[in-house]
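Q: I'm teaching a short session on how sequence maps to structure, and I want students to see two examples side by side rather than one. Could you give me a first protein with its sequence written out and its structure tokens following it? Keep the formatting plain so it prints cleanly on a handout.
A: Of course. Example one:
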Amino acid sequence: MTQQADAVVVGSGLAGLVATYELTKAGRRVIVVDQENRANLGGQAFWSLGGLFLVDTPEQRRLGIRDSAELALQDWMGSAGFDRDDEDFWPRQWARAYVEFAAGEKRQYLHDLGLRITPVVGWAERGGGFADGHGNSVPRFHLTWGTGPEVVRVFAEPVLEAERQGLVEFRFRHRVDEIIVDDGAATGIRGAVLAPDDAERGVASSRDIVGDFEIHADAVIVTTGGIGHNHDLIRANWPVDRLGEPPKTMISGVPAYVDGRMLSITEEAGANLVNRDRMWHYTEGINNWDPIWPDHAIRIIPGPSSLWLDAEGNRLAPPNFPGFDTNSTMKAILATGYDYSWFVLTQSIIEKEFALSGSEQNPDITSKDLKFAAKSRFAKGAPGPVAKFAEHGVDFVVRSNLPDLVAGMNEITRGPKLDLAHVERIISARDAEIENKYSKDAQLMAITNARQYLGDKLVRVAKPHRLLDPEHGPLIAVRLNILTRKTLGGIETDLNSRVMRPDGSAFDGLFAAGEVAGFGGGGVHGYNALEGTFLGGCIFSGRAAGRAVARGSTERG
């Protein structure tokens, strides 16, 4: 077949939209293919909370946060823990470039597209307790006004306008099965045409084949995401040596189409895959009482006050507090031999500290309704979506006293029955530390530290109180499950998002961006993510791919 476009983009998620936007700005003709229908434009990003990792912003400075590119890079490198000479060669360079982007033009780049952010900066993934180790030293989680749909919108609108002008052609329900390689260069794709399916966004669609297709282009850009819904592939790549045996029960934080197919297809074409064992799953997953996709999970984004118990009712050791060190907590939970844990908290804590990840779980911010948001965030009682989970969620137990609470927990346990006397001793010991403003309890010290930050004190961290104080009741327990989410490794790429071959050479005509490329380089996060960096990684790597193809780049990054 003859050349049909300047570039073919595989995947219409955020990274694909960004790459297409950059290509069309340069006047290039683009074909975008996706195995889902048009309703899924924007992919996973649509469902996200819309948090963005930004450094030294006006929002931070107004809240008294002193941040810098140097401090952010120290945090990034301490979290990433890069320790592989070959596989981490490009990720190290991507990390430096991305932090420079986050501290430099990223905010203005997005602002010029029409994206705005909320005034309170969140403090996500607070870390493991060492200045040069994992975690954010200061709050950097900038929440998009409009959440994930708004991040998608600012790139989708110009791409859709380019479609109307004839620069972009979408081919939905086209599943790629092969990258065409001629004389060592990627020249196109071929695959199967899937039967039309009008399923709503996120709903699992059919895989019935009605035909085949072949598309040729000067460049192929792969932007198809990771393996987050493919539990078999997750288990096959699970880092047993670092985290322990993979959980028997996993629930999915991403739709069914996040299947990882293009990773092996790209590898078969000759690409180098690196850091396959690095992944980012959450320990605070709850089953969605109103699911959209199979095994639909929601993550609790917790403040620091809930008491975290393992399956046997033992308190997790520092730094395994809510919102501090995801992988350390994962390892501690799985070391018990069980794949779940418990939050124990009060009504006062759930009202102020529980946020749910996802655009649909934050309708006030997603709809950009200022009055609705003010009423929802400052009114007494838990936010509406949180209250519905407490009422309908299978993982929630709400009782007026501790004996009834523990009895309710034992009704939904997947492991040992909890001993009331044991749980009561742990809670009472914690409560005894509340009488003073200072404490030897590391979690209470962390809460005191958090409340030094105005944003946390106002809207995120409850005033310390005794869990067994009836004035703060009722008592609440939440069974926490392992929620699958992000792939941190993937296709190795240089700083132009060009795919690399196993021998270290560039793969002519083949590019990759977003999660399929480990958000840049094949693993820009290393072993740990600082949160707010997934959307930004899609934007940064998608931009690099689009610009490189647009200028016909052949130089090394």
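Q: Perfect. Now a second example for contrast.
A: Example two:
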Amino acid sequence: MNTHSTPQRPRRRLRQAVALAAAAGVAGSILLVTPAAQANLPADPPSSTMPAPTPGFPLPTTHTQQAYDPAADFTSKWTRADAKQIMAQSNPNVAPGQNSMSPNVTMPEIPKDFPAMNDDVWVWDLWSLTDENANQISYKGWDVIFALVADRHAGYGFDQRHWNARIGYFFRKTNADPAKDKWNYGGHLFLDNTSIGNTEWSGSTRLMQGNKINVFYTATTFYDVAERNAGGGGIAPDAVIAKALGNIHANQNGVTFDGFQHTKLLEPDGKLYQNKAQNPGFAFRDPYTFADPAHPGKTFMVFEGNTGGTRGSYKCKQEDLGYQPGDPNAETVAQVNSTGAWYQTANVGLAVADNKDLTKWSFLPPILSANCVNDQTERPQIYIQNENGKNKYYLFTISHQFTYADGMRGPDGVYGFVGNGVRSDYQPVNNSGLALGSPTDLNMPANAPEGPDPRQNGRQFQAYSHYVQPGGLVQSFIDNVDGVRGGSLSPTVKMNFKAGVTQVDRSFGQNGLGPFGYLPTNLRVGGEGHYK
């Protein structure tokens, strides 16, 4: 059953969306009273199967998907043998600049004449108002989303937005037509000079009891904003994970927030997670909190990190390579360490809350490492989906083509891993880890969105910062569509997945592209009244 179809006729789409939202809201209410069985709304299953081995390439690492205690000292590896499957599943014979990836993992092309979401701010990393089970909340008849924003008219450029970022929020009526009705911009979520850093980076937002919300975010402090805006700078920033507890209000005019109290939660320890003293370019950001039905009463957080230790001190190990014994296409540890691949040390961190107020947290070992494969595993999410009567845990994260280690190649996009628990011997989806990427010719060298190779596919950087929603809907922001810079929300696409296989649903919307900024809610909270 296609639970998120968006036919081309807008009126029909609207009626379907309203009916589905009502049905999903009932389902969500039932799920909330049975936490042991809690799982996200399932995605539709793909029609494809796991890709077969490709001659001339190494076999992927064998992963059991076995679950471990969340506090166990076990970290799953996204290995070089796994990531080599990206190129194994890519077509080496396409014309230069075309898309070489399988259509199953390729995002449909975004039109070059895309609309601006807002004329005053650039918009990028985004997320929804949710509960601890990733239900997307309609609050008193309003849908609410959050995103990083920066002033389009302040004199700095689009690529300088990162050190000027604030968390903004948008809202629109739950019964709006997503193809026609724009999101209303509510402004900055926090009052000026009240958050812990001078720059606010990505996180997640949870509705608590009553009208309370917890905003988990990355508090980043840049010490050279003016210099960076002028094209210079380079002083390493500080970064900590923080939260803000505040109030949400809604009336017939819209949604507002107030009363935020900010608390610093975590800063990197230098042991499990690399800190600034060890690497000025360390990653420590993007908190995403959730409840695990296998461990009732506990709240966990995943986040992006890097393997602890001074940059350059790590050396690749056999388990990072992950080749099967005797594989004739395998690299040796010595070969890999001669390339400098050991500089890439991304991981996905895990923490557990020590109190019900979610103000005290303890680190647990990372649940995934990408040592010698990639240096960024940004904006991780845990997506729990029931498959054949058993909860399967999907870890989704995003990464760039230019953060791969030497000898590795992949597109900007979503990467996924599946296991039987939050800490598992995760199996990369499609045997490679690549779940959904922008159209890219992987036969050409990697480059970056601010200066792409004109010989490449013009949409290789069309979208980034993908956010996986219930039912497999995927939202992202537009970065660079054939030379036109973005700063607006992309059309939503649909990713069918089951049993570790993903497939773009091209029957969704129009040729696979749904409405721009389509983040449908599935749980209504707070009473609708006359705000519906």
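Q: What should students look for in example two?
A: Point them to this: The first helix runs from residue 10 to 32. Also worth mentioning: Residues 1-37 have pLDDT under 50 and may be disordered.
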